[in-house]
Fold this sequence. Notes:
Elements (H helix, E strand, L loop, with lengths): L9 H9 L12 H35 L6 H34 L8 H14 L17 H12 L4 H8 L2 H4 L1 E3 L4 H10 L5 E9 L8 H16 L3 E10 L6 H8 L9 E5 L22 E5 L16 E5 L12 H5 L7 E5 L16 E2 L5 E8 H10 E2 L5 E7 L18 H7 L4 E7 L2 E9 L5 E9 L5 H18 L6 E6 L10 H9 L6 E6 L4 H7 L11 E6 L5 H16 L6 E6 L8
Parallel strand pairs: 1-2, 2-3, 3-4, 4-5, 5-6, 6-7, 7-9, 8-10, 9-11, 11-14, 12-15, 15-16, 16-17, 17-18
Antiparallel strand pairs: 12-13, 13-14
Amino acid sequence: MDEVGGLISPTLGNCLIEDPIDVLSHRPACSTIASTLAETADTFATRLREENSQAVSLYEVTRTGGPQVINPAGRFLLEENLAALQRAEESLIRAFIPHRRLHNRLSYLLRLPDEIIVRIVLTYIHGVLRFPGNDGINPVNWYDRPFVDLKQRLAVTQLCSQWREICHHARIIWSDIDMMWPSTAIEAFATRAGKMSLSLNFQFNDLNGSFPNGYHDAVLEVGEKFVANNMYRVRQLVIGLCLLDHEVDFPAFWNHFKYLSAPKLQKLEISGTSSLDEDALLNLFSHEAPALKSIHLRGCPIRNFDLAPFQALTSLNIDLSPSAPELHLSQLPLLLSRSPGVVELTLFGDVAFSDVNLMILQPIFTLRECTSLTLIGFFADHINFILSSISFPALQDLALKSRSRLSVEETPTTCLHPSLPFAIKDSCRRAEGVSFWLEEGRINLEIEYSAGSGEDHLFKLEESFRGLPQAKMKPAVIQLLTKPRLILDIEPAFLYVSSSDELPEDLYLKGVWTAFLSAYPSVERISIDGTVPVGPFVAVLNNPNILCPSLNNITIETEDPLQDGTRRAITRMLRNRRRRGVSIETVQISEIDPDSDME
């Protein structure tokens, strides 16, 4: 397709890119004229290409077939005709460039402001190219990936001459550099970025051993020199190691520039670098990174890391495992206290932490600005220790993912504990509903609420009880289902219970349902779906000791049709509750396809 609406043909496109023509002096015509000119030129160009192709084929035959195919005079005449055809095609292309550009200018896409076109290009670069192999079909070749990425980045900036000019002058497009590219491309991007700060990305991913020997060392050598010369303008530095071996001398590379000042650095991300020594982050950037707002560390030794010099820090994401030397959980509050301005805090833990039976403390310090907290991969009692030792008065969103284990008293531990921040408990108290997802070995809890700003926020808890003795699983499930009422002081009007796995039947016995429904007397609506057995639930509601007196609506969505006996039990339950003066107005029953996302 020719260059219309931002698409170019290989032939015309090459000419447009290599030999641009200034069309400012050309007065725009109407789209009809431009379209007619385009059709005419396309017809001529098609005919010329056909003639050219035939001439080239004939010429190849004469060139390889010897003198018996055609005499020298005929060959000379054929070469002259071929040259004439090529000159005619080039002339047509040059003559048509102004009209083609005119047609492009009339397209809706190129009428957009330059800023929007640049945003489209950046969206493609950051939203598509950042996720190689996301089609789920083609495997990622990590050796070819940087070169394919570079090719696609250049291609998306050259859809047509006008588009190319806009992208060429948009320095932000060229400021994002993959350090796995060839050194010439790295330097070219840095030059085009002008005075724009740079984002540098080192991603060493070679789990398949597909890279040539010495490749990564060569990349480090180029990167070492480039970073040393440009650290003063680096905005974002991302380093990731995912290799089969550790022959790459990364510590030497890191030590070469870790003390360089970074006046413009806003984001630092380091992962998979367990080969670093325990002082790798000591005196980082000589404490001269005043703009550093975000730090993401995974597998780095952080015991000696001092956050105090980075007072602009607002986002902190630390994976505490693996870490050598080991950071004891009791040391974590002191580490975090050095960064009081953090707004978003994410910590990934490890159930292999040696800390056991940590005492619940009064808050040691306060993170006054923190509004979002995520704690993943800890034992429940570890999370309770963290939440008891640090105060979060402004917290709006809390996500916890933990594993239950037995306490000293031989009872299952849970994150539904008095140590939960008061700000979360106060917000949950005003929530209208609570949602539970029961899966094999774990329960998910979600409570949505509105903060003072009117925006929606979440308290999410995923708690695993896989490691508990069989006899302790039922008490663990009961406390996870009932403690939101006790700890959060919540009186929800709506309960949602879902299960997608075949769980042990004793987890759905009448005793569990009785404890669950007894905890929420204010509930008005209950929704059940998935593989949750309905019979015990209906039996509990039919109990003479009335539960959920305000309940007036039940929704049941099952994967299997309800048995006739269950339907008759529902009818009896409705009749009996009506007789007792606590009637349920509606019961909706439907079936869902377990293999479909559509209900």
